[in-house]
């Protein structure tokens, strides 16, 4: 089989997943975008969390051109990506009880804020506890996960629950268990992951919805511009100064 044919198959698989998410998750996308708009309009702050590769989609929302300036990364040391050595440590930390509560308790998050929790499987202790702890503190929680994992895998949290069980809104990425879209008889393992593509697109659709809801209500969405276009840095500096008390990645 030619490499070009495999590439085309992956694109087809990713496009198919994006179409499913667009069509099947439209009500949840609308609800999530409205919840974010409510939080912004009410003076709340926005946070995003994901461990391992799920952190990529969280980081894609933070300090990003065309996105809301109020979105802050809630980072768990050692679990933000694959930069920790060894990389397997990050996966191990996802299964540690108590870590999420400690991180959230020392963060600036407070009642009235909103947290986006991203976990493909939604089964590990860290994302489950993060959502549970956030709601206990009075935060709204949007969960992004593949719901099918809850029916075909065992929870790794002491409660036996999954991320989807502790959210105000759940966004289902539709990713199959194992996160690999392609297979061949000549290759012993499935390959070509699509979760980052789909999850990032899903969340960008939510942010677009939030911006539209705010505009419909007469609020100017606090959006960032690219620093690589003329006037972008000046625009962003104005937004940072206006919303500085709700932005934690900016040097005041």
Automatic annotation (TrEMBL):
Residues covered by the SIS domain: 36-219
CDD domains linked to this entry: SIS_RpiR (cd05013)
Cross-referenced InterPro entries: RpiR-like_SIS, SIS_dom, SIS_dom_sf, SIS_GmhA/DiaA_subfam, UPF0309
Homology family: Belongs to the UPF0309 family.
PANTHER family: PHOSPHOHEPTOSE ISOMERASE, SEDOHEPTULOSE 7-PHOSPHATE ISOMERASE / DNAA INITIATOR-ASSOCIATING FACTOR FOR REPLICATION INITIATION
Protein name: UPF0309 protein OG288_19465
Organism expressing this protein natively: Streptomyces tauricus
Source organism phylogeny: Bacteria, Bacillati, Actinomycetota, Actinomycetes, Kitasatosporales
């Amino acid at each position: 089989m030619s490499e070009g044919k495999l590439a085309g198959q992956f694109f087809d698989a990713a496009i198919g997943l994006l179409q499913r998410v667009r069509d099947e998750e439209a009500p949840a996308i609308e609800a999530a975008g409205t919840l974010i708009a409510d939080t912004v309009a009410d003076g709340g702050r926005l946070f995003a969390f994901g461990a391992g590769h799920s952190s990529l989609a969280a980081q894609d929302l933070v300090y990003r051109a065309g996105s809301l300036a109020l979105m802050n990364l809630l980072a768990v040391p050692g679990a933000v990506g694959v930069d920790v050595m060894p990389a397997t440590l990050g996966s191990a930390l996802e299964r540690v009880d108590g870590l999420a509560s400690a991180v959230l308790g020392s963060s600036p998050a407070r009642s009235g804020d909103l947290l986006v929790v991203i976990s493909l499987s939604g089964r590990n202790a860290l994302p489950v506890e993060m959502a549970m702890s956030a709601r206990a503190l009075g935060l709204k929680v949007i969960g992004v996960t593949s719901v099918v994992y809850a029916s075909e895998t065992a929870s790794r949290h002491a409660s036996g629950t999954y991320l989807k069980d502790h959210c105000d809104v759940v966004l289902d990425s539709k990713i199959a268990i194992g996160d690999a879209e392609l297979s061949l008889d000549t290759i012993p393992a499935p390959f070509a992951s699509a979760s980052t593509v789909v999850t990032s697109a899903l969340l960008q659709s939510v942010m677009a919805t939030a911006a539209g809801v705010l505009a419909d209500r007469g609020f100017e969405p606090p959006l960032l511009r690219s620093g690589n276009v003329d006037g972008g840095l000046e625009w962003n500096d104005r937004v940072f100064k206006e919303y500085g008390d709700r932005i934690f990645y900016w040097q005041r």
